[in-house]
Design brief:
By secondary structure, this protein is α/β, with parallel strands linked by helices. 50% of the residues lie in helices and 15% in strands. It has 14 helices and 13 strands. A seven-stranded parallel beta sheet has the order 3-2-1-4-5-6-7, with helices on both faces. A six-stranded parallel beta sheet has the order 10-9-8-11-12-13, with helices on both faces. Helix 1 crosses helix 11, helix 4 packs parallel to helix 5 and helix 7 crosses helix 10. It is globular. The chain starts with a strand and ends with a helix.
Length: 364
């Protein structure tokens, strides 16, 4: 029996990264039912229970070493692992997984990664050296490939797509039950608003509240979607502000699985998102969206998907969110057609990530 080890940002309750994990586990099991899958996780017991995998604590190097030694192949990613915007320490951690795997002669596949930004000179040098050691590299967008080329990585780099495009949504009846449990009427025209706290200026949130008011006047039902628990503090604050304006607070959907998130997004008509996987999952179910360019990976995906993106609020003040979002609504049918035409391409590219993993397993 072959064993693979998945290393990423798993077990933190982030729907986006959990969508990567869920889709990868599902696709690998479908292709190789006898494959033994192991995962490095922040909360190993929760990960094991959720996915039926053998899980190890990601911050215990003794346990990580044990998992690497048991594996036949290490799947590194997906997600934005190789970057130092979060911290240089984070970059060193992920590079250490690659080096440890190579030390034990375990082949590594860099799997649908989003690369950068890597701003430190040392970080760029160490990343370049690590990429020499891996067996294959796939990235989820052309910007990530360009970043690796700028680092001086000269080997073949394949541009694929995010693994979450392989995820199947929850059935409609389950999605409606989830909505009902959060106080959302699934029969209404839902618009999802998925925000991230970036300490944006007050005018940005004032416009969000104006957008909520105008959507309601237009017969739409805006709802908050929290992609991670830490997003709930912001939705709570905004709902307090909305209530202070004598408007009903928005329902908030949170603490759901990636499959459930995909199912409820499919029930919606449109989406405004500040996290990459909110937009990827919206695209997966053909729901037009507007992104907010708080990270280069968001603007890169919006361009690829053909949907609009708003500037970074702190750098480009006082742009008109309401005008931009209602332009999306006006041209909604065009965006839906475009997303549905692109979906087979995204899915096929995401499947290529799995095929590359399988090819390496066959040659072990």
């Amino acid at each position: 029996m072959r064993r693979v080890l998945l290393s990423g940002y798993y077990g933190f309750g982030n729907i986006g990264d959990e969508a990567i994990l869920a889709s990868t586990v599902e696709a690998l099991r479908k292709a190789r039912p006898d494959l033994d899958i192991m995962v490095l996780s922040q909360h190993p017991e929760e990960t094991s229970a959720a996915y039926g995998v053998e899980s190890y604590p990601r911050m215990s190097m003794n346990e990580v070493r044990k998992a690497v030694r048991k594996s036949d192949l290490v799947i590194f990613g997906g997600g934005s692992l190789l970057q130092d915007a979060t911290s240089f320490r984070s970059l060193l951690y992920y590079l250490s997984i690659i080096h440890l795997s190579c030390f034990y002669n375990k082949p590594v596949v860099v799997y649908a990664n989003g690369i950068g930004p890597i701003n430190s000179r040392l970080g760029r040098l160490l990343t370049k050296r690590a990429m020499r050691k891996v067996k294959d590299i796939t990235v989820r967008d052309s910007e990530s490939k360009e970043e690796l080329l700028r680092l001086g990585v000269t080997r073949d780099i394949k541009v694929t797509a995010d693994p979450a495009f392989l995820l199947e949504p929850a059935p409609d009846d389950l999605a409606k039950k989830i909505l009902e449990s959060h106080g959302v009427n699934g029969q209404q025209d839902i618009v999802w608003i998925a925000l991230k706290d970036i300490n944006a200026p007050d005018w940005f949130y004032d416009q969000i509240m104006t957008l909520v008011s105008e959507m309601r006047q237009d017969g739409l039902s805006p709802c908050f979607l929290a992609m991670q628990e830490r997003d709930l503090a912001l939705t709570t604050k905004l709902n307090q502000d909305i209530a202070a304006m004598n408007m009903d607070p928005l329902p908030v959907v949170s603490n759901i699985t990636p499959v459930d998130a995909l199912g409820i997004l499919a029930v919606g008509q449109f989406c405004l998102g500040m996290r990459l996987h909110t937009l990827i999952l919206s695209s997966r179910v053909g729901v037009p969206f507007v992104g907010v360019d708080i990270d280069p990976k968001i603007s890169a995906f919006c361009r690829t998907a053909g949907c609009p993106v708003l500037p970074y609020p702190a750098k480009y003040p006082n742009f008109d969110i309401v005008k931009e979002f209602f332009a999306l609504i006006r041209d909604g049918d065009m965006y839906r057609r475009s997303l549905n035409e692109k979906l087979p391409v995204f899915s096929s590219l995401a499947e290529e990530n799995i095929n590359i993993v399988l090819r390496h397993l066959d040659h072990i």
